[in-house]
Design a protein that fits this description.
The chain is an alpha+beta fold and 185 residues long. It has a single domain, classed as Aminopeptidase (3-Layer(aba) Sandwich), CATH 3.40.630. The protein has five helices and eight strands, in the order E-E-H-H-H-E-E-E-H-E-H-E-E. A hairpin with a 3-residue loop joins strand 1 and strand 2. The two termini are 27 Å apart. The model has no long low-confidence stretch (mean pLDDT 93).
């Protein structure tokens, strides 16, 4: 799949799977975005870590990873990677659910690109992937992440103390969710 072969396209972004050829750009963007991501998120910042990360997303049927690419790229490069959205812990059968993880890169933050990408991922999740429900577990202080899912139609469903081990400690999370019916899909 080349950079212009998207699974879905919006007005400004397209979504596509991770590829080995994305390692250099992805890791450079992650390093540039360290201040934006900390303490919420720790994407891979070197090629070896990226390779292991991308392999898990592309080789495990319980995961799906999507790069959100700005078509035409604001920095003059074609199809610059603006961020990423992953669906983890995909369970089929009666559950048909997955857990979202995501992040925008600093050059794209605050421009609505990840929101547009999330709408495309929701269409893909509730369409070709056949899911019924997606959850996003978010640390209560992460206002930007909460605003993103709220705009996408997620509802707050609960609070999970000591839910995920992040940055050396067990962190509380709010549980946000959306179903196919809630989005009209």
């Amino acid at each position: 799949m080349t950079e212009r072969e998207y699974l879905a396209e919006g007005r400004r972004v397209g979504i596509r799977p991770f590829t080995p050829g994305d390692a250099e750009e992805f890791t450079a963007r992650a390093r540039e975005s360290r201040e934006l991501h900390r303490p919420w998120l720790f994407p891979p910042e070197d090629t070896a870590a990226y390779t292991a990360y991308a392999d898990r997303l592309t080789g495990d049927p319980a995961r799906a990873g999507f790069l959100v690419c700005e078509r035409g790229g604001a920095d003059g490069r074609a199809d610059a990677i603006a961020g990423f959205i992953n669906i983890n812990n995909i369970v089929a059968g009666a559950f048909c659910c997955g857990a979202l993880g995501y992040g925008a890169f600093a050059h794209a933050a605050g421009r609505g690109l990840l929101g547009e990408g999330l709408r495309l991922v929701l269409d893909h999740a509730f369409g070709p992937l056949g899911l019924h429900r997606l959850e996003a577990n978010i640390q209560p202080g992460n206002a930007g992440s909460i605003a993103l899912v709220r705009r996408a139609g997620f509802r707050l469903e609960g609070f999970s103390p000591d839910f995920l081990f992040i940055d050396g400690a067990w962190r509380d999370h709010e549980r946000w969710a959306v179903t196919a019916e809630m989005t009209g899909r």
